[in-house]
Amino acid sequence: MQPIYDIESFRPSQAVGAHIGRARRAIVEAINQELAPLDISHAQWIVVLLLGDGAASTAAELCKILIYDPGAMTRLLDRLQKKGVLKRVRTKADRRAVRLELTAEGAKLYPRIVEALVQVYNRLLRGFSRAEVQQLDDLLKRMVANA
Amino acid sequence: MQPIYDIESFRPSQAVGAHIGRARRAIVEAINQELAPLDISHAQWIVVLLLGDGAASTAAELCKILIYDPGAMTRLLDRLQKKGVLKRVRTKADRRAVRLELTAEGAKLYPRIVEALVQVYNRLLRGFSRAEVQQLDDLLKRMVANA
DNA sequence: TGACAGTGTTTGCCTAGGCAATTAATATCC
DNA sequence: GGATATTAATTGCCTAGGCAAACACTGTCA
């Protein structure tokens, strides 16, 4: 298999990286716009999502999944707590860790975020067959696997 | 064409957005690692690239292409100037604008960045046929077009 | 030509993430 | 059991981007 790009003909703005970057920007902007009424930031709704579906329940887990700085996470959680979205609960099992729980308020946010995401993705995937989406996913996963 | 995702079965971490996010992270990290010896940040090498291949020559153009805040751009250019990578040249044509030019130093950076990008992309695309890369590009472009 | 809108750049202020050091609690290993 | 390493969370400090206001200059249009 010959290499895809070579130095002579390389055009940065036409490379996969640029396309991926533009697609990501389109997604982020669309979601932000959709979630604007909830007054919640990009980093924040991802956390609500992860707590809401049980993928994480402590700051450390969130940091690991999101590859996010622990210090920044503490402050992000502070903000969500101040908003009344989540609460910190110390547990007996491990007294270092703080279990994070969505409040009733926060729990109401979860389905709204899911709905927004589904809507945005479906919109950005207009005209795609399921097979094409599957293929896109697969190609991206192969890139990540090569890292 | 039926919608791709539905609320019940939606798994955020398996959606296209997540895959795109992970691919982007893999690319950024690989490039940063490759360019670490140059002591230049993510935002900075993109600017050098755009100036180097003539895609932009003023701060305003850079902002437009990168969808980047003008204030932040001023300061980013300050840093690159202090590093001796570029210089600002006032021109008679439009006395508001400042033409940006790579210094001899900056010009030497350009091919090294291109080389790093080509290398990283080719590595992340190991095992891809040209057709597959083309398909990936196309699928991403279609998403962006739907935005 | 002169008022006015628009453009290019800069600055100040605010927010937020990264890094390093700290503290508290737990795990490990002898 | 006790020294040591590791882990979870927090804090302070630094850097950098977003927004809004300010300023200089250019373009437009009556």
The amount of helix of chain A comes to: 55-70%
Q: What characterizes the major β-sheet of chain A?
A: 2 strands, antiparallel
Helix-strand topology string of chain A = HHHHEEHH
Note the beta-strand portion of chain A: 5-15%
Low-confidence stretches of chain A: none
How far do the termini of chain A sit from each other? 18 Å
Radius of gyration of chain A: 19 Å
Write the layout of secondary structure elements.
The structure is a homodimer of 147-residue chains.
Chain A: H1 16-35, H2 42-52, H3 59-66, H4 70-82, E1 86-90, E2 98-102, H5 104-124, H6 130-145
Antiparallel strand pairs in A: 1-2
The structure holds a DNA duplex (30 and 30 nucleotides).
Description:
Two copies of one chain form a homodimer. Chain A has 147 residues and is mainly α. Helix content of chain A is 61%, strand content 7%. Chain A has helices spanning 16-35, 42-52, 59-66, 70-82, 104-124, 130-145, and strands at 86-90, 98-102. Chain A has a two-stranded antiparallel sheet with strand order 1-2. In chain A, strand 1 and strand 2 (98-102) form a beta hairpin. In chain A, helix 2 (42-52) crosses helix 5 (104-124) and helix 3 crosses helix 4. The longest helix of chain A has 21 residues, at 104-124. Chain A is globular and about 60 Å long. The mean pLDDT of chain A is 95. At the A-B interface, helix 1, helix 5 and helix 6 of A face helix 1, helix 5 and helix 6 of B.
